[in-house]
């Protein structure tokens, strides 16, 4: 399977092996220790028996001073190959008879057997000594010491170690085999869950499920919970997608409705403006006819009334024209090209030169860049702003109009500054609304549509409009256009 | 020489003497009759006597017949001794007629001339007969001391002992220098 499966199964196998290895080792060491302890005590028992036999068979030899008889007795120890040497001492500590397996007897001091004991044994690294008192008729007549080597014990230890090692190897091989088989029951479901989890996280496919485990243990719970979780996520994902789709549909519907009503509104205002012109033409036409025909008959008041009617009709016609232009603006599509702002300002100044009306105006036009935009639409913007500047400086003896631009990141900001009557910043938000006027019509003429048009055009270009000013201290109108980099 | 130096010399000398003495080990070699007295008593540990009404079987009585060669050695050896829980008593006899209560009779070399009559009489009484006279075993005596190269050993005439109803332990036979199964010379 996957490498993850490999790693977890390897860990399980190692764990199994470790546990069984340690258990076997402990068992082996315990058995060996127990066996060695048993062996030691058995060795002592054996030596004790031999010492007893030697003791009882050497009583008369000691009593009647017959070392040869004692040596004969000791010679019988030849039957026990582990006995290295045996000594018999007289009661007064003299070496009486000796036996040595390898011939050379090592003379040694008589053993000191404490009062009350008749036998002592002592172990050292390679041998064990056992000494026993020889007693005749209740009286000590000598001692016997038998020394046996522990070669057999070490042989036994070695063979034990070999056996434990062999058992360990075989058992570990067995454990490896068994755990390979048995841990599949654990690692396979885990690996499958992991694979499913990976598939879910990589492919976002919440429809997959991990195969269930029929064991009823924690693994089964894990797999079932995991599947239940996936099912829940799938459910939520589906409802989320559904909600998303519904939302999109709703947004699209609303947008369409909005477009439709917008269009309707434009069509309505267009038709209204258009339809209003017909009666207006009649009013203007017949007022003109009336003046031609009966102008002479009218007194001063009548003439003034008629003139007022004519003027009002003319103003209304302008209004309607502006309204039509405004509503057309919403429908016209942008045809963008490179627009030289300096050229645009020159053209606009030419267009508004009639408004100057012989006044002295101090123009200051800074260097202006080129921008991206629809020249046919940007031109009325500039005309409007310059026209406004001329209009609202009309009360000044020395009018001053400044046009400039500054390049900000992502946009170019153009401003038109004048030293006219200015406005109250409290009403700045109303400046760009349709029919919103901050000055009375008899003060400054205008339809109240110009700045609304400016805002509309600039916004269609993706820019902004704003203004700064103060009453009596002039005003500055700004508009921004996105520059190439960020457009 | 200062006093401390003198004392040191004395101590060294004493130490040397002690060491020499100890190295030679053999603690005060026992005299021949000391050994024989000890053996006489020890034989009792390896012999079973037939019961005799004339004797106290709850004790072991050791008798010396004839001129006593042991002297105070015997008394010193046997004082307070026991054999397998039985008290040991001892006395000196002048003739075999007094030996009815004896378990072990040592026949002195002084009785050598009478040995051929004394031994059958003692055997009759069921006593263990011991002597150091030559040819004692040949005359039917049960144990005869043999001293060779200043070593005390003994021969056993097993036949006499058996005929007298005594049982001699094989342990004792093992350390005997010779064991006779007949009246003739030992094997």
Quick synopsis:
Chain A is built from 10 helices and 12 strands. Chain A has 487 residues and is of the alpha+beta class. In chain B, 34% of the residues lie in helices and 24% in strands.
Total DSSP E strands of chain B: 10
Termini gap of chain B: 69 Å
Structural class of chain A: alpha+beta
What structural class do the secondary elements of chain B suggest?
A: alpha/beta
Low-confidence stretches of chain B: 12-26, 183-187
Shape of chain B: globular
Percent helix of chain B, as a range, is 25-40%
- Which sequence of SSEs, written as H and E, runs from N to C of chain A? HHHEEEEEHHHHEHEEHEEHEE
Residue fraction in strands of chain A? 15-25%
Count of discrete alpha- or pi-helical segments spanning 4 or more residues of chain A: 10
Number of β-strand runs of chain A: 12
Characterize the structure shown.
The complex is a heterodimer of chains A (487) and B (187). By secondary structure, chain A is α+β, with helices and mostly antiparallel strands. Chain A is built from 10 helices and 12 strands. Chain A has helices at 3-57, 59-63, 67-75, 151-182, 184-203, 218-294, 300-331, 341-356, 375-392, 450-460; strands at 83-90, 95-100, 119-123, 127-136, 139-149, 337-340, 361-365, 370-373, 399-408, 411-418, 465-469, 475-482. In chain A, the strands form 3 sheets. In chain A, strands 2-1-5-4-3 form a 5-stranded antiparallel beta sheet. In chain A, helix 1 (3-57) packs antiparallel against helix 4, helix 1 runs antiparallel to helix 5 (184-203) and helix 5 (184-203) packs parallel to helix 6 (218-294). Chain B is of the alpha/beta class. Chain B is built from 6 helices and 10 strands. An 8-stranded mixed beta sheet of chain B has the order 3-4-2-5-6-7-8-10, sandwiched between helices. In chain B, strand 3 (82-83) and strand 4 form a beta hairpin. The longest helix of chain B has 22 residues, at 3-24. Chain B is globular. The model of chain B is unreliable at 12-26 and 183-187 (pLDDT under 50). Chains A and B meet through helix 2 of A and helix 2, strand 3, strand 8 and helix 6 of B.
């Amino acid at each position: 399977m996957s490498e993850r499966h490999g790693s977890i199964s390897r860990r399980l196998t190692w764990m199994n092996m470790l546990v069984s290895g340690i258990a076997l080792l402990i068992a082996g060491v315990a058995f060996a220790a127990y066996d060695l302890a048993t062996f030691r005590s058995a060795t002592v028992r054996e030596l004790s028996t031999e010492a007893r036999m030697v003791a009882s068979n050497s009583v008369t030899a000691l009593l009647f001073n017959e070392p040869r008889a004692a040596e004969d007795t000791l010679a019988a120890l030849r039957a026990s190959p582990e006995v290295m040497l045996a000594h018999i001492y007289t009661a007064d500590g003299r070496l009486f008879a000796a036996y040595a397996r390898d011939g050379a007897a090592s003379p040694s001091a008589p053993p000191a057997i404490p009062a009350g004991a008749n036998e002592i044994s002592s172990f050292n690294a390679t041998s064990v000594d056992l000494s026993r008192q020889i007693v005749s008729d209740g009286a000590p007549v000598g001692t016997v010491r038998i020394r046996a080597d522990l070669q057999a014990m070490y042989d036994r230890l070695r063979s034990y170690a070999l056996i434990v090692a062999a058992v360990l190897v075989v058992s570990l091989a067995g454990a490896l085999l068994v755990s390979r088989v048995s841990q599949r029951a654990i690692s396979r479901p885990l690996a499958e869950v992991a694979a499913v989890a990976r598939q879910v996280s990589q492919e976002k496919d919440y429809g997959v499920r991990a195969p269930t485990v029929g064991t009823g243990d924690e693994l089964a719970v894990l797999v079932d919970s995991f599947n239940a979780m996936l099912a829940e996520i799938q459910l939520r994902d589906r409802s989320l997608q559904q909600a998303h789709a519904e939302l999109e549909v709703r947004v699209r519907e609303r947008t369409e409705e909005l477009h439709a009503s917008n269009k309707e509104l434009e069509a309505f205002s267009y038709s209204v403006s258009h339809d209003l012109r017909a009666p207006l033409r009649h009013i203007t036409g017949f007022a003109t006819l009336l003046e031609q025909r009966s102008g002479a008959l009218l007194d001063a008041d009548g003439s003034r009334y008629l003139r007022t009617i004519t003027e009002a009709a003319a103003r209304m016609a302008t209004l309607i024209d502006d309204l039509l232009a405004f509503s057309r603006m919403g429908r016209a599509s942008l045809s963008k090209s490179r627009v030289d702002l300096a050229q645009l300002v020159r053209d606009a100044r030419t267009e508004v030169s009639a408004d100057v009306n012989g006044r002295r105006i101090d123009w200051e036009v800074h260097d202006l860049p080129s921008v991206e935009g629809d020249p046919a639409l940007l031109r009325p913007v500039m005309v409007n702003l310059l026209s406004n500047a001329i209009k609202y400086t009309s009360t000044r003896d020395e009018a001053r109009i400044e046009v400039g631009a500054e390049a900000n990141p992502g946009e170019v900001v153009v401003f038109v500054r004048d030293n006219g009557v200015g406005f109250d910043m409290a009403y700045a938000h109303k400046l760009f609304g349709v029919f919103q006027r901050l000055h009375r019509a008899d003060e400054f003429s205008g339809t109240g549509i110009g700045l609304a048009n400016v805002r509309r055009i600039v916004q269609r270009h993706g820019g902004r409009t704003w203004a700064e000013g103060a009453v009596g201290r002039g005003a500055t109108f700004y508009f921004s256009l996105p520059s190439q980099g960020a457009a | 020489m200062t006093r401390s130096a003198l004392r040191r010399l004395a101590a060294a000398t004493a130490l040397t003497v002690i060491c020499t003495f100890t190295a030679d080990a053999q603690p005060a070699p026992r005299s021949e009759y000391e050994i024989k007295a000890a053996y006489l008593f020890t034989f009792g540990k390896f012999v079973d006597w037939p019961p005799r009404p004339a004797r106290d079987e709850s004790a072991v009585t050791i008798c010396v017949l004839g001129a006593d060669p042991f002297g105070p050695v015997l008394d010193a050896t046997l004082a307070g001794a026991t054999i397998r829980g039985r008290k040991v008593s001892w006395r000196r006899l002048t003739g075999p007629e007094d030996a009815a209560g004896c378990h072990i009779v040592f026949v002195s070399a002084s009785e050598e001339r009478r040995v051929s009559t004394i031994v059958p009489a003692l055997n009759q009484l069921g006593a263990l007969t011991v002597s150091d006279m030559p040819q004692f075993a040949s005359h039917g005596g049960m144990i005869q001391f043999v001293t060779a190269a200043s070593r005390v050993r003994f021969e056993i005439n097993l036949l006499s002992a058996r005929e007298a109803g005594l049982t001699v332990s094989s342990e004792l036979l093992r350390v005997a220098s010779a064991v006779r199964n007949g009246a003739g010379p030992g094997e």
